[in-house]
Amino acid sequence: MYAQRQDMEDVFGLKEVITLTDRNRLGEIDDVVLRKALARASSEIDSYIGSRYTLPLSADIIPEALVDRCCDITRFKLCGTSGVQLTEEIRARYEDAVRYLEQIASGKIKLGTGGIGTAKTTNTVKFASGGRQFGRDKTNGGAF
User: Structure pTM?
Assistant: First the structure.
C-alpha cells in the first residue's frame, strides 16, 4: 500500500479519520475499514502507474507525492460509505490526484524512483517485409 494509518492521521487528523472509518460508533479508527480503503486506493494508483513502472514499487522508494495522493483517494472513497458528506474540497483533491496519476501514466511526470521500477517494455513491435512488389525483376527492368 502507498499509505498507512499514520499517513492518514498526519494528513487529515485523528478526528476526521475516526469519522471516516468508525462504523460502530466506538469513537476510534476502525483499522479493518481503513486498511481496505487504503488497499482500494493503492489498487487505483497501480492501475495508472503500472503501465510505466514495475509493480509493486519497493516500500522504501515510494515518493511522498504518491502517499499524499493515496490519502486523498482513500478519503474520497470512504466518504461514500461512512455517511460523511462529500465536499467540493474532497472531490477536488480526488480529481487532482487522478490528473496527477494520468500524467504519470502518460510519462509527463516521473516518480523519481532513482531508476528503480523502470518503465516496462513488454509491448514490442516487429516489422517484417513481404518482399518487393515493384522491383526490376517484377516489371521486366523498366518503369510501370
Answer: 0.76
